[in-house]
Amino acid sequence: MYHLIGVQTPAKATEWPEGRAAGAWEERCMRVLIVEDNAGIAANLYDFLESHGHAVESVSDGLTGLGAATTGDFDAIVLDIRLPRLSGLEVCRRLRKEHHCETPVLMLTAMDSLDDKLEGFAAGADDYLVKPFAMREVEARLNAVVSRRSGRTIRRMLEAGDLRYDPETVAVTFCGQPVKLPPKCVKLLAALLESPGRVFSHTELERIGWGASETSAETVRTHMSILRRALTVEGRECPIQTVHGIGYRVRAALV
Predict the structure, then answer these.
(1) Does residue 102 have a pLDDT over 80?
(2) Residue 22 pLDDT > 60, yes or no?
(3) Closest to 134 (Cα-Cα) out of 29, 59, 45
(4) DSSP strand pairing (55-59 vs 76-80)
(5) pLDDT single digits (tens) 189-198
(6) Are 173 and 164 in contact (CB under 8 A)?
(7) Quick check: helix, strand or coil at residue 115?
(8) Residue 153 phi/psi, 5° resolution?
(9) Is the Cβ–Cβ distance between 93 and 101 less than 8 Å?
(10) Which domains occur in the chain, in start order?
(11) DSSP H or E stretch at residue 127
(12) Helices 39-51 and 183-194, interaxial angle, to 10°?
């Protein structure tokens, strides 16, 4: 069934998509930046993509989007044309000409004339999608533009001791056994494994897990508790260590 903007409520970010399990995704895991000022559309995109195993960050204006795109490490950008502070077309132009950023851009717009599409492509967009759209089509188009740009570059396995995370399949294993985790926990774990031994503060983890969305330290603690419980094996220390009053890290002994 297709998810259409304004028609259906997407799956909650903490639920696994129907008929799928962790590590069983058909497409590659992507890190996606959404630049969209319509809160409803942004939320639908965020929830759908995240529930399908992708790491998502969302901002609501062009200037913030330009900053995030040039400083973050994203596989693709979903960019609305009509944005406050800086238009999507101008964001795309600056990314390509001033910052030499080659991250694939999927442009969203309510305008569907040929001239509008040509203007988007001239600005440097890789693909163009007219509103309203199906969520599955957004994901399919993102996979296509990322594949065309990158030639399907395989990301390295992240590991510390017996804890492993494969970004390509979104599979987590510990002591050789598969570990099922909600998408938010996978995102937090990936960040910790990217810099093993480093202590991540609650504020940093809020930003990694929820982007610009409002959340709380308690939400982070809840998700980290879920993560630690899932990685608890009899006779073994949990690989994720709580640094009281500061945050969390992968245990230094594993590095």
Answers:
(1) yes
(2) no
(3) 45
(4) unpaired
(5) 988 998 888 8
(6) yes
(7) helix
(8) -60, 130
(9) no
(10) 31-150 (3.40.50.2300), 158-254 (1.10.10.10)
(11) strand 127-130
(12) 80
